[in-house]
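Input/output pair, single chain:
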Amino acid sequence: MKSCPWPVEELLPHARPMILIDTVEGYDAASLAAAVTVRTGEPFIDPDRGAPAHLAIEWMAQACGAFVGAEAREAGAPVRLGLLLGTRAFTAHRSWFAPGTRLGIRVALVYRDGEMGVFDCVATVGGETVAAAQLTVYQPADARTLLENNS
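Output:
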């Protein structure tokens, strides 16, 4: 896995505060490692309990987006919008991630066919898996037209 030369803001078609992952630690042709620290005052964070476990799905989805964003940047192409279509086999070993918890998010490409992809995803704390899922994602060639025609 090689280090990522781009900040996460250059890999996702979002803007803060809706970018929820902090950094991309590294990536290769089939996977990406990212990190996030649970901070009070951030979107979706309860000041007392921290992040609900299901927020890990969005962290994983954003890591998938960063993976295809890094591919695009390497190819000199623009970063495009992607959509989370489905989540399979989501498990969480904690109900909440306390403020200050640093999580590693790892995504691995399992399958790709044109605009569709499937990723195996895990969230870890100190090397221990605390959440896992398989995500199905879609990156349409023309997301603007797709969204305009379906709104």
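The mean pLDDT is 94. The beta strands are 23-27, 31-37, 51-52, 83-92, 96-97, 102-113, 116-125, 128-138.
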